[in-house]
Amino acid sequence: MKFENQGPKIVENDLTRLEQVIGGPLPNDYRQFLLTYNGGVPIQFSVVDVEGLKGTPTDVHVLFGIKRSIESDELFWNVEVFSERLRGKHLLPIGCDSGGCLFCLSLAENNFGTILYFDWDFENLQGNIYPVAHDFTSFLNKLRN
User: Fold this and answer.
1) What is the CATH number of the domain that holds 41?
2) Do residues 94 and 79 lie in contact, with contact meaning Cβ atoms separated by under 8 Å?
């Protein structure tokens, strides 16, 4: 898979800092993605099916990274902005679709590493969460035209 608009190169210390902020480790496949691409926009394969979501598939607008030049594409910024909305859900926002709904990485012990879709539901301020893939690698493999 190829990505355009990748973030600047990062090092292990950047990931350690992120892990300190989120209070635990990142899955290995997601760590490797950040070290290799540091976020970006998938080239060619830009939609993914979301089980149970009305109107699926949805697009993958951007995957967040560290030290990104666009603030809304920055992992730390998204962690801070969505901390209240995602409180208690053990989710790390890792990307979004063009409507602003989030792709999240589960940090919960019972489904660690699972990719979930957080659909903003303005009637239900908590939003709705849908499964996407059992890990980050599977998520990337599910991307299609």
Assistant:
1) 3.40.1580.10
2) no
3-state secondary structure 60-127: CCEECECCCCCHHHEHHHHHHHHCCCCCCCCEEEEEECCCCCEEEEECCHHHCCCEEEEECCCCCCCC
Mean pLDDT calculated for residue range 102-108? 96
Helix 12-22 crosses helix 75-82 at what angle (to 10 degrees)?
0
Instruction: Give the domain range for residue 55.
Output: 3-142
Average pLDDT on 39-56 reads 91
pLDDT band of residue 127 (cuts 50, 70, 90) is confident
Whole-number mean pLDDT of the chain? 93
The strand pairing partners of 59, in sequence order, are: 47
- Strands 128-133, 115-119: parallel, antiparallel or unpaired by DSSP? antiparallel
pLDDT given for residue 61 in this prediction: 95
pLDDT of residue 124: 58
Q: Please state the domain count of the chain.
A: 1
